[in-house]
Design brief:
This protein is mainly beta. The chain has one helix at residues 114-119, and strands at residues 31-37, 41-48, 55-61, 67-70, 73-76, 81-88, 101-108, 125-138. Keywords: Cytoplasm, Cytoskeleton.
Length: 152
Protein backbone atom coordinates (compact mmCIF):
# COMPACT_ATOMS: atom_id res chain seq x y z
CA UNK A 1 0.00 0.00 0.00
CA UNK A 2 1.52 3.34 -1.07
CA UNK A 3 1.24 6.73 0.50
CA UNK A 4 -1.76 8.89 -0.01
CA UNK A 5 -1.42 10.86 -3.22
CA UNK A 6 0.83 8.37 -5.02
CA UNK A 7 -2.00 7.43 -7.33
CA UNK A 8 -0.92 8.52 -10.83
CA UNK A 9 -3.77 7.30 -13.01
CA UNK A 10 -7.34 8.50 -12.54
CA UNK A 11 -9.62 5.57 -11.90
CA UNK A 12 -13.01 6.17 -13.46
CA UNK A 13 -15.83 4.69 -11.39
CA UNK A 14 -18.40 3.04 -13.63
CA UNK A 15 -22.13 3.17 -12.94
CA UNK A 16 -23.88 0.02 -11.87
CA UNK A 17 -25.88 -1.71 -14.64
CA UNK A 18 -29.20 -0.28 -13.41
CA UNK A 19 -27.92 3.30 -12.98
CA UNK A 20 -28.64 5.89 -15.69
CA UNK A 21 -25.82 8.02 -17.13
CA UNK A 22 -25.18 11.47 -15.68
CA UNK A 23 -26.86 14.20 -17.76
CA UNK A 24 -25.35 17.32 -16.21
CA UNK A 25 -21.88 18.67 -16.94
CA UNK A 26 -18.90 18.46 -14.59
CA UNK A 27 -15.44 19.40 -15.83
CA UNK A 28 -13.49 17.28 -13.31
CA UNK A 29 -12.77 13.57 -13.38
CA UNK A 30 -11.69 13.48 -9.71
CA UNK A 31 -11.78 15.48 -6.50
CA UNK A 32 -8.19 16.40 -5.55
CA UNK A 33 -7.32 17.49 -2.01
CA UNK A 34 -3.96 19.14 -1.34
CA UNK A 35 -3.52 19.32 2.41
CA UNK A 36 -1.09 20.48 5.08
CA UNK A 37 -1.32 18.69 8.43
CA UNK A 38 -3.22 19.59 10.68
CA UNK A 39 -5.39 21.87 8.55
CA UNK A 40 -8.59 20.86 6.80
CA UNK A 41 -8.46 20.67 3.01
CA UNK A 42 -10.94 21.96 0.46
CA UNK A 43 -11.99 21.08 -3.07
CA UNK A 44 -14.70 22.44 -5.32
CA UNK A 45 -16.71 21.15 -8.24
CA UNK A 46 -18.98 23.00 -10.60
CA UNK A 47 -22.22 21.38 -11.75
CA UNK A 48 -23.62 22.86 -14.96
CA UNK A 49 -27.12 22.28 -16.32
CA UNK A 50 -26.94 22.76 -20.09
CA UNK A 51 -30.35 21.13 -20.60
CA UNK A 52 -33.79 22.70 -20.70
CA UNK A 53 -34.87 20.68 -17.66
CA UNK A 54 -34.95 21.46 -13.94
CA UNK A 55 -33.12 18.98 -11.72
CA UNK A 56 -32.69 18.30 -8.05
CA UNK A 57 -29.12 17.22 -7.27
CA UNK A 58 -27.80 15.34 -4.25
CA UNK A 59 -24.06 15.02 -3.53
CA UNK A 60 -22.94 12.33 -1.06
CA UNK A 61 -19.55 11.19 0.24
CA UNK A 62 -18.32 7.79 1.34
CA UNK A 63 -17.71 9.05 4.91
CA UNK A 64 -19.66 11.88 6.55
CA UNK A 65 -17.22 11.99 9.49
CA UNK A 66 -14.31 12.83 7.16
CA UNK A 67 -16.05 14.99 4.56
CA UNK A 68 -18.50 17.87 4.56
CA UNK A 69 -20.36 18.85 1.39
CA UNK A 70 -22.03 22.26 0.93
CA UNK A 71 -24.57 22.41 -0.55
CA UNK A 72 -25.31 18.68 -0.38
CA UNK A 73 -28.72 18.90 -2.03
CA UNK A 74 -30.01 21.61 -4.34
CA UNK A 75 -32.15 22.52 -7.33
CA UNK A 76 -30.41 23.45 -10.57
CA UNK A 77 -32.43 25.33 -13.17
CA UNK A 78 -31.89 25.17 -16.95
CA UNK A 79 -28.74 27.09 -17.87
CA UNK A 80 -27.66 27.39 -14.22
CA UNK A 81 -24.28 26.55 -12.75
CA UNK A 82 -23.69 25.66 -9.07
CA UNK A 83 -20.46 25.30 -7.13
CA UNK A 84 -20.20 22.59 -4.47
CA UNK A 85 -17.51 22.77 -1.76
CA UNK A 86 -16.10 19.54 -0.33
CA UNK A 87 -14.13 19.74 2.92
CA UNK A 88 -11.74 17.09 4.22
CA UNK A 89 -12.40 17.92 7.87
CA UNK A 90 -9.61 16.15 9.72
CA UNK A 91 -6.02 15.62 8.55
CA UNK A 92 -4.57 15.11 12.05
CA UNK A 93 -5.77 11.54 12.56
CA UNK A 94 -5.64 8.55 10.23
CA UNK A 95 -5.78 9.96 6.73
CA UNK A 96 -8.11 8.36 4.21
CA UNK A 97 -6.91 5.98 1.55
CA UNK A 98 -7.58 6.77 -2.10
CA UNK A 99 -10.73 4.64 -2.16
CA UNK A 100 -13.12 7.44 -1.20
CA UNK A 101 -15.41 9.12 -3.71
CA UNK A 102 -18.42 11.38 -3.99
CA UNK A 103 -21.63 10.29 -5.61
CA UNK A 104 -23.75 12.81 -7.49
CA UNK A 105 -27.37 11.89 -8.17
CA UNK A 106 -29.98 13.90 -10.03
CA UNK A 107 -33.69 13.72 -10.74
CA UNK A 108 -35.69 15.79 -13.20
CA UNK A 109 -38.41 17.46 -11.17
CA UNK A 110 -40.98 20.20 -10.83
CA UNK A 111 -41.20 19.61 -7.06
CA UNK A 112 -41.06 22.57 -4.70
CA UNK A 113 -38.96 20.83 -2.01
CA UNK A 114 -35.85 18.66 -2.30
CA UNK A 115 -37.46 16.05 -0.06
CA UNK A 116 -40.41 15.77 -2.44
CA UNK A 117 -38.10 15.60 -5.48
CA UNK A 118 -36.22 12.54 -4.24
CA UNK A 119 -39.32 10.82 -2.81
CA UNK A 120 -40.39 10.08 -6.39
CA UNK A 121 -37.83 7.28 -6.23
CA UNK A 122 -36.52 7.48 -9.79
CA UNK A 123 -32.92 8.65 -10.22
CA UNK A 124 -32.28 10.13 -13.68
CA UNK A 125 -28.48 10.26 -13.52
CA UNK A 126 -25.54 9.08 -11.43
CA UNK A 127 -21.85 10.01 -11.38
CA UNK A 128 -19.10 9.01 -8.95
CA UNK A 129 -15.86 10.98 -8.74
CA UNK A 130 -12.84 9.48 -6.96
CA UNK A 131 -11.02 11.52 -4.30
CA UNK A 132 -7.24 11.93 -4.46
CA UNK A 133 -5.20 13.14 -1.45
CA UNK A 134 -1.86 14.94 -1.83
CA UNK A 135 0.06 15.89 1.29
CA UNK A 136 1.92 19.17 0.99
CA UNK A 137 3.58 19.30 4.40
CA UNK A 138 2.67 20.19 7.92
CA UNK A 139 3.37 19.22 11.48
CA UNK A 140 4.75 15.74 10.84
CA UNK A 141 7.15 16.65 8.04
CA UNK A 142 10.83 16.05 8.82
CA UNK A 143 12.88 19.24 9.28
CA UNK A 144 14.51 20.53 6.13
CA UNK A 145 18.31 20.78 6.13
CA UNK A 146 19.59 24.32 6.51
CA UNK A 147 21.56 25.85 3.66
CA UNK A 148 25.05 26.22 5.07
CA UNK A 149 27.71 28.03 3.13
CA UNK A 150 31.32 26.98 3.60
CA UNK A 151 33.37 29.77 5.13
CA UNK A 152 36.71 28.56 3.70
Amino acid sequence: MGEIGDQKKIIKIQNLPNEPPFQLKIEKEEIRFKYVIPNPAFAQIQIINELKKRFCVKVKSTDNKLFDIQPAIMFIEPGQSIYVKITLKDTTNQLPENHHYIGIFHVETSAKSVTEAFKQGKIDGVLRLPMIFEREGGAEDPPQPANVMNAD
